[in-house]
Design a protein that fits this description.
Elements (H helix, E strand, L loop, with lengths): L1 E2 H7 L5 H9 L3 E3 L2 E2 L6 E2 L5 E3 L2 E3 L6 E6 L28 E2 L8 E7 L2 H8 L7 E8 L4 H9 L2 E2 L2 E2 L4 E8 L2 E8 L6 H8 L4 E9 L2 E2 L8 E3 L2 H16 L13
Parallel strand pairs: 9-15
Antiparallel strand pairs: 1-4, 2-3, 2-5, 5-6, 7-9, 7-17, 8-9, 10-14, 10-15, 11-12, 13-14, 15-16
Helix pairs in contact: 1-2
Bound molecules: uracil.
Uracil binds next to α5.
């Protein structure tokens, strides 16, 4: 059994919050009866009408998108900049980005209409590896690398241990790869900024086992059911891993 507002939102008719408003306003019927009590549960097999329109459960869709530079990770941009939704206009159901990449960041981004999958992937406790290729200003020393790998405090919260591989130096920049098991807002940039290195280029190469192989910027492909299953299992396994028990404890400096 699921909450009525969740089933309505899953149909793609509107957001969960809007569905709650519609239920409270008496605009929703289940098998012909008005249901205006929030929290009512349904199986999803009933005939559900919103504003007189029958809704049906939406098929779940999962995509891997190669986000190009200069695209905002939103469905709409008030400033009229290109947004990720523009690349999915041919898809019947609305798919939403799972998490975000900065305007100038390129690379792997999942898009889906499955709210449970999105929440699981974004939950702070599901530590799916994210691998980034980074170019930063200046020469990153071995000492800085080790300190970032151990974890540093950003806004009072310690970052989880990560792996960094320095690929080389060029003039006054360092090229490296960083593997994170968390995805806080602007995390890579904040980590390197805290160490005195401005990020010049950022590209997400992979999320867990899913890489961009075969895709060009602006292209998307469907995730296979196997890939979705692996990602869900990884998120759930890592969630319950004993090592992760204390992972969200924050410490003030
Ligand atoms: N970390 C950042 O700083 N920016 C991104 O877009 C992704 C990760």
């Amino acid at each position: 059994m699921e909450r009525l507002q969740k089933i309505i939102a899953q149909s793609g008719y509107c957001s969960r919050r809007k569905a709650e408003e519609l239920i409270s306003a008496g605009k929703v019927t289940v098998n012909g009866e008005v249901v205006d009590v929030l929290g009512t549960k349904v199986t999803g097999k009933e005939e559900i009408c919103v504003n007189g329109q029958i809704i049906s459960k939406e098929e779940k869709k999962y995509f891997l998108f190669y986000k190009p530079k200069g695209v905002v990770t939103t469905m709409h941009d008030e400033k009229g900049r290109p947004c990720v939704a523009d690349f999915f206009s041919e898809i019947d159901e609305r798919v939403y980005p799972v998490g975000r990449l900065d305007y100038d960041t390129t690379g792997a981004l999942f898009m889906t209409n499955d709210g449970d999958f999105a929440n699981l992937m974004m939950h702070p406790s599901s530590h799916i590896d994210k691998i980034y290729e980074v170019v930063v200003d200046g020469h990153v020393s071995e000492e800085t690398k080790k300190s970032l790998e151990r974890g540093i405090y950003i806004e009072g919260v310690k970052t989880l241990p990560c792996r960094i591989k320095i690929n080389g130096y060029n003039e006054n920049v360092t090229m490296l790869m960083i593997k994170l098991q968390e995805g806080k807002n602007r995390q890579v940039k904040k980590m390197f900024e805290a160490a005195g290195h401005e990020v010049k280029r950022l590209h997400r190469m992979a999320i867990g086992p899913v890489t961009l192989k075969g895709l060009e910027p602006g292209m998307a492909r469907r995730l296979t059911p196997h890939e979705v299953g692996v990602l869900v299992n990884l998120a759930k396994t890592k969630k319950s891993h004993p090592k992760n028990k204390n992972r969200n404890k924050s410490k003030r400096k």
